[in-house]
Amino acid sequence: MKQYDAVIFDWDGTLMDSTHSIIESIQLASADVGLPVPSTMQASWIIGLSLETGLYKAVPELTAELMPDFIERYRHHFFQRDKSIKMFDGAVPMLDGLRQRAIPISVATGKSRAGLDRVLRAVELTSYFNTTRCADETQSKPDPQMLHEILWELDLRPESVLMVGDTTHDVHMAHNVGMDSLAVTYGAHDVATLEKSEPTIIVESVPEMHDWIFNRLKTQ
């Protein structure tokens, strides 16, 4: 059985239950600026990408001129929902267990640096992670640059690290750096979509993810 030295997590839809808030904020912002409202599937597909990159895909009619107004309306709606967004049940205890085992844990996210830092403070997890990378300070998923940077900073080899996420963007990013991946089905992308990206394993819940990971950690 393969064992891992470290784990890298996506954030939205993987550790934090924010998928529905992101989707609704995109849909409401579209209506606010007079553009066709994307379906839930269209909006959810872009979660994990950098915001601007994703919005052009989710809302094809969006122009560069409208982008500032769109992002302002998106943030307005998202921040209104901010206080109700919680970590998935079991996510924090899982992170606690990894820290107790002295397993390096990191975040690779499509969020901005300001957005990730704000939410980490809100849920009191700022000190939990060995390092983090955001889409506005490196290349957006599925480009592997943020994983390369994490590996370099922590002096890790890709074959000894597991990438965990809820989208095909996470899985493809892991493939692009030669890293195994665990995909969760409770986030943005459904099982059929995730299966096409060929992750190492697909799980349906945080407890299932916890058990799979902890059975494959190298002994420190």
Explain what you see.
The chain is an alpha/beta fold. Helices cover 45% and strands 12% of the residues. The protein has helices spanning 19-32, 40-45, 51-58, 67-81, 91-100, 113-122, 145-154, 168-177, 191-196, 206-214, and strands spanning 6-9, 105-109, 131-134, 161-165, 180-184, 201-203. A 6-stranded parallel sheet has the order 3-2-1-4-5-6, with helices on both faces. The longest helix is centred in the middle third of the chain and has 15 residues, at 67-81. The two termini are 16 Å apart.
Could you give a quick summary of the protein structure above?
This protein has helices at residues 19-32, 40-45, 51-58, 67-81, 91-100, 113-122, 145-154, 168-177, 191-196, 206-214; strands at residues 6-9, 105-109, 131-134, 161-165, 180-184, 201-203.
